[in-house]
Amino acid sequence: MAYEVRDWKAPGCSLTLKTDKLSDRETFSAEINEKYGEGGGLNANYRTVEALALAANLLGEEGLKYGQDFVFKTSGLDEIILDFADKDKLGQADIIISDYLFKKANNRKPQGTKKPAIKCLLCGAEMKLETYDTTSYFQCQQDETHRMSLSEWSDFQHGGESKEKVRKAMLERRTNLQAQLIQK
Ligand SMILES: [Zn+2]
């Protein structure tokens, strides 16, 4: 089934990844062409395919399942595009991949991404990834009314004006959560 012609599950939940950041593999394989002839070459280049395998494996290690939480949409020039079931999964994937690329770029051995170091925008304390019902969000470890959704985290990563927007959204949520706590 061709996913690229329509949105998969939810519109606007695509993530574009640069293949040369994920994979160091050459785009062609002289060795395979020699052994299997030109027909053994992929139309999609080798780096694209390896980048997809890497991305799917990274997401899988963190509990995102292929075909359920995300699918391969299409590939462009030096990029692959994945489609996610919803904004929450997209935010989660953005965190996992960003964290992996950051570690790779800094020559750190990429390993589990379960503890991305994220500081609370309101008080600077550490935030931890928590799940309530089926929704994941970042919870401040100092104040239970400081919370950031994954899509907000994703917006925040893109910088600029969105940083202030995310802070405002967190302040509004704090007011709501404070009210809920008083009622209890
Ligand atoms: Zn906080």
Defining key terms:
alpha+beta; three-stranded antiparallel sheet; 184 residues; elongated; four-stranded antiparallel sheet; single chain; binds zinc ion; 20% strand
Structural commentary:
With 184 residues, the protein is an alpha+beta fold. The chain has six helices and seven strands, in the order βαααββαββββαα. The protein folds into two domains: 14-105, no CATH class; 118-183, no CATH class. Helix content is 42%, strand content 20%. The strands form two sheets. It has a four-stranded antiparallel sheet. The protein has a three-stranded antiparallel sheet with strand order 1-3-2. Helix 4 (87-105) crosses helix 5 (150-157) and helix 5 packs antiparallel against helix 6. The chain is elongated. Residues 120, 122-123, 125, 140, 142-143, 146 line the site of zinc ion.
Shape: elongated
* Strands ordered across the widest β-sheet: 4-5-6-7
Largest sheet: 4 strands, antiparallel
Q: Catalogue the ligands.
A: zinc ion
Compose a concise summary of this entry:
This protein is of the alpha+beta class and 184 residues long. It has helices at residues 19-22, 30-36, 46-61, 87-105, 150-157, 161-183; strands at residues 14-18, 70-76, 79-84, 118-119, 126-132, 135-140, 147-149. The strands form 2 sheets. Strands 4-5-6-7 form a 4-stranded antiparallel beta sheet.
Q: Layout of helices and strands, plus pairs?
A:
Layout: E1 14-18, H1 19-22, H2 30-36, H3 46-61, E2 70-76, E3 79-84, H4 87-105, E4 118-119, E5 126-132, E6 135-140, E7 147-149, H5 150-157, H6 161-183
Antiparallel strand pairs: 1-3, 2-3, 4-5, 5-6, 6-7
Helix pairs in contact: 4-5, 5-6
The chain binds zinc ion (ZN).
